[in-house]
Amino acid sequence: MSGAKKNQPPLKKTKTHHLQSTPSKSIRTFFQPLNSPIPPKNPDTESPIKLPHQTSTSSTSSPSSSSSSTNVVEVKKRISLLKKTPSEFDHSSVAWWKKGEPVPFLFLSLAFDMIKEEKGRNAMSDIGCNVLRTVMHTTPGDLLPVVYLFSNRIAPPYQGLEMGVGKAAVIKTLAEACGRTEKDVKEHYKKLGDLGLVAQASHLSQTLQKSDALTITKVFNTFHLIAKESGKDSQKKKNNLIKSLLHASTDCEPLYLVRLLLKELRIGYAEQTLLSALGQAAVYTEEHSKPPPGIQSPLEEATKIVKQAYSVLPDYDKIISAMLTDGVWLLAKTCNFTPGIPVEPMLSEKITSVSEALNKLRNAELICEYKYDGERAQIHYKENGSVEIYSRSSERNTGKFPDVVAAVSRLKKKNVSSFVLDCEIVAYDRKKQRILPMQVLSTRARKDVAVSNIKVDVCVFPFDLLHLNGQALLEENLKIRRKHLYASFEEESGFLQFSMSLISNDAKEIQKFLDKSVDASCEGLIFKTLDKDSTYQPSERNWLKLKKDYMKTIGDTLDLVPIGAFHGQGKRAGVYGSFLLACYDVDTQEFQTISKTGTGFKDEDLEESSARLRTNLIPKPKACYKHAEKDKPDVWFEASEVWEVKVSDLTISPDYQAAVGKVHSNKGISLRMPRLVRFRPDKAPEQATSSERIAEMYNAQKHNHPDKSKKKN
DNA sequence: CGTGACTGCCC
DNA sequence: ATTCTGC
DNA sequence: GCAGAATGGGCAGTCACG
Fold it and tell me: What ranges does the record list as Low complexity composition bias (predicted)?
């Protein structure tokens, strides 16, 4: 594809006033210039360059119209030292601001830009590491916001703080900020595939407005203000806050402001690399603190420790503060699993057959459990009786499930004073004693639900216990955890039922169990070891999952026609990113939209398909294309080819038109998790899967006709 | 007060 | 969620 | 095999606007 291009707006002069808005109290606990026995190499006195942010002592800001643009050149030259191997890097070599002064946002933006250009994760991690060390050295109080911005968040997920700024809002703001129409901005966006690049190319702040240089804390605090804004006129206010940032930004700052707002950093650097860099930065910064004896490679070890700490306590406020006060080597002690704070859930890896499970977990005692189709939940019950429920991504869901709160409180056994339960919450019809589809669960109200007003009942299916009566069980084997699990709760039909499980290493028996799970409206099975390697490993993909649609020969497959496409974003800029697909209704001779798809393509496939279909453009949808007005693709195609798509489910859709009237009077059918399997050059569009067949497939889904799913042996 | 666009979060 | 890709 | 970044349907909640 293409190399990265930069597109930098001309520099503007920035004046130097540090509007210091202190973030929050957490900084108080930060250790000051970390234990640096080595006197800093005279950080500022020697700085040979007059830099934009360095008004030195004179608070009487002179309208220094002097060489501000050359200054940025100098800054960039200097900052390229970040590329040095950490062992050769001098933590005071790149900062152009004084010790104790707020870290300029430009520093982070330029670092992002450098990271983006690197290829290897090691090289990227090194830059990150050097950035963190620089901040630790000059302004440790800024480390927390720097880490948050690096990780593309503004708060731990369970705090529910969201900016509520999306593409549409950014488009609107950009249009206003540079006096263009929204339509204009949208076009530009479609071309570049990245609103950050649009912002950067827009030469914002045309007027030579005297504005203060952005600092990390300014940006971070403004993000928080944006997040907290709500109610009438809140959109306008958010809009203005964003504009104020954009107008104060220079160089590549607009690019990263926008990307941060949209949570799309796109520099190939995310959580795991950051954690690794954090660990390494700590090792270099804590120069006097020797690693514990017996450690061969402190850097790797520190990385492990930080990742481990984060996986059981995913909260940077706590991790950073613990790291700065007690050092990285104590992190395993200072950042423990904490009841009330969610742990990252253990995950599973996809497999495609029972035999694959038996192979991978050879020589270990196996347990299979039904894979229920609901929401993952981690339920924390504390000594004082308070309960919190967290989602798979650590969002606090307690307010959505007051009935679950009641159920676990009621069904825990007497000897249980506190626990953390890992489970699946599933929509459930108690009268018919039947699991209901995910789509039913998703209609449940989410905020401040009252037990008396619940529309969708749920049943909890526990499968693991991470904590019991003040004791962490993470390090115990599954066998032990299960023993505790079963000993700690009573079952109550329709409220709490242990996940259906089978302990077996017998392929035939397991195959039967798999079929049974599907009959019971489940998605398939999860495989785990009971003894060997069976501790609970947060965020690790050490379980296996087998779903019917993963299996090569089984699962629903459809032959569909691409009739439109959407421009790609990010690394897909310049090609289509996804395609609008249709089935064929033989009776009406219509192509009816059924879903989009944008995954399953090799890069090459995507380029070729894009090139091929671009020759087939039509200005308007044909009369025989049945689609909703709502989501029109960027371009329409003549129906010309057939693609095979695999799905996990068919669903009734509010928008898509496939088989409309056949299973629902005015709604069509769509696809859950559609992905391209292969092209079908052997088929003509009219040979695509028919609406009739799609209705059949929908009706064949077990949970749509549960009465017919008689037990079979 | 109803509707539709937008956003975040489930999968 | 699924899938692909570079390291 | 890891980590990151592309991409899917669809729901409730929020806000702007008529």
Answer: 55-70
